[in-house]
Amino acid sequence: MTSEKLSLSSTKTSLHTLDSQASSEDYTVHAKESPCMIRDDPLSIRRLSGSLHSSEDPNEIKQYLEDEERLREEYSDLDLQRLATKTTILNRIASTFHNAEDDFVIDQYRVPVEDNGEEFKSIDPELVTWALDSPENPRNWRMSKKVYVTLIVSMYTFVSPISASIMSPASKDLAQDFDIQSSTVQALVTSIHLLAWVIGPLIIAPLSENERLGRRTVLNWTCWVTFVFNLACAFSKNTTQLIILRFCSGLFSATPLNVSPAVISDMFDAKSRNTSLAGVFLIPFIGAAIAPVIGGYVVEARGWRWVLFTLAIINGAIALIGLALFTETYSPSLLHAKAKRLRKATGNPNLHTIYELSGDGLTLGKLKETVTRPLMLLCTNPLVFGLGSFMAFIYGFLYLMIVTFPSVFEKSYGFSQSTAGLMFLALGVGFVLGVVSWTIALGYVYNKLVEKHGVAKPEFRLPCLFVSAVIMPIGLFWYGWSAQYKLHWIMPCVGSGIFAFGLVCVFQALQAYLIDMNPAFAASSIAAASMFRFLLGFLFPLFANIMYEKMGYGWGNTMCGILAILLGIPFPFFCYKYGERLRAWCNERMEKSEEKKRAERQEALRRKAEALIR
């Protein structure tokens, strides 16, 4: 049956009436008042709901077609009612921006809806979402499948650190081939990767929040692009080519570091994701420790170019495995694909997801926001700047060790390149022990403080930092002075392991704090701190050899240890004591700056609602 054409004024009047009816409590509308609704009998509700929110079974699709025909026969103007329903939903989403409670998290890239718009199912049976306990919903996957996907995404994160640090043992051979006289340029070949990590994730990672791309597409293509640049590095003809190609590789290789926590969040709720996040968090550190071991053996046997060929082989293998086995986890992308299949199967072009209805997607405006907001937080939020500075310096100290390990163990101890590479395993042992120990300790202390005070506060994440602020300087002193006096080779290894053990606490505690202090801007807070730490991770190795030549390993690492104490005790203490007041002040300022953006989003949704009736 074709719908009767109405004048604009009468259409608006009808829609206004229907919208008012659809706005009643619990979004319920009597069937005769809204033809877009199912009849008020359980059988028809079950049939239509089953057709839309289950897998595309032929019998269910057939039943949906029968239900749709029944609706068309029963109601005179189904298209008008669809417009009314869509207008109602858009108006409700728009009002959510204005009326959101303080603890309501508005995603930076998505519209503020819960459960992928399931709260609107009762007024829009053509809305494609997940049924209760739907096996297609990543949150409802079997635990075995979640573990399997976690392992695959962890493999992606392995590419990032090995790409960054595998060249460290090859710096001497590379310098001979390309006649590099400057120790700064030698270090630049390794650390340039981290400079790219400052920029790349801000632009590329948000693409995974677009429902037409999703996590799988972004992770796969960035892994393959990284492979191409890593392979191209092996054919470099001079230092400039190598540095440029490694920078390009770094732009894409950092993406898994930012997207992998989002993948875990897609599958696990807040209470059950800690263990999986700890595993994903550990892999980059393990990669940073294992890569120089691989590089040391390969450069000794085949030369520096084969170090890059080996990197490309590992990268390519992971890219192939991911392409074949990684499953999409982003619900908006999965729902987008489901709606597309259902539209084709049923011939009903009106089936849609909440994100298609609201016009969600990554726009240039949103992309600009993802780049500028972390910078704004870093410059205007003292908590982000202070704690981010602490993280950045500690990360810089780590890369000081990574680029100077070859000179310590090859020159001071006379080890071969392959044997010197094995010394990096001391860092790996420290990382593994740190993740296991600090995950337990941080959770225990946090839960005890919550139990004691009867309320959860972000500051309860910080007490363990006072312990790590002592452990890390001990590791730096131990490593530096044992290398200075050429004590048994195990001694600098023990010192580096102690430092790595303490470093894990800093990253776990501060990332949890940055998330908890304002969940609505968690991604931007983490991005701001990451930018700062990758920047210092890039800069510190450039002056490492010069510093140690002037000061020696003992005094050079003593200076680093003193800085770790000066940053590691005052900042956490200040945040623990005054953090609540400072958070309130910072959040108030941030909220004021966001009000204009929310008003613009609200107005855009209302304009879209108006456009539906024109």
Radius of gyration equals 28 Å
- List SSEs in N-to-C order: HHHHHHHHHHHHHHHHHHHHHHH
Major β-sheet profile: none
- Parts with pLDDT < 50 across at least 5 consecutive residues: 1-55, 97-110
Strand proportion: under 5%
Number of helices: 23
Superfamily at the CATH H level of the largest domain?
A: MFS general substrate transporter like domains
What's the assembly state of these chains? single chain
Work out the number of β strands: 0
Distance between the first and last residues' Cα: 21 Å
* Mean of residue pLDDT values: 77
Shape: globular
Structural class: mainly alpha
CATH topology of the largest domain: Growth Hormone, Chain: A
Helical proportion, percent range: over 70%
Annotated CATH architecture of the largest domain: Up-down Bundle
Q: What is the number of independent domains?
A: 3
Q: Any idea of the CATH class of the largest domain?
A: Mainly Alpha
GO molecular function: transmembrane transporter activity
Main location: membrane
Subcellular location: Membrane
Protein name: Major facilitator superfamily (MFS) profile domain-containing protein
What secondary-structure arrangement, pairings included, does this model have?
Layout: H1 8-22, H2 42-53, H3 58-74, H4 78-99, H5 143-165, H6 171-178, H7 183-204, H8 214-233, H9 239-253, H10 255-267, H11 274-302, H12 304-325, H13 331-346, H14 354-357, H15 364-380, H16 382-412, H17 417-422, H18 425-453, H19 464-484, H20 490-517, H21 522-539, H22 544-568, H23 570-612
Helix pairs in contact: 1-4, 2-3, 4-23, 5-10, 5-11, 5-12, 6-7, 7-9, 7-21, 8-9, 8-10, 8-12, 10-11, 11-12, 11-18, 15-16, 15-21, 16-20, 16-21, 16-22, 16-23, 18-20, 19-20, 19-22, 20-21
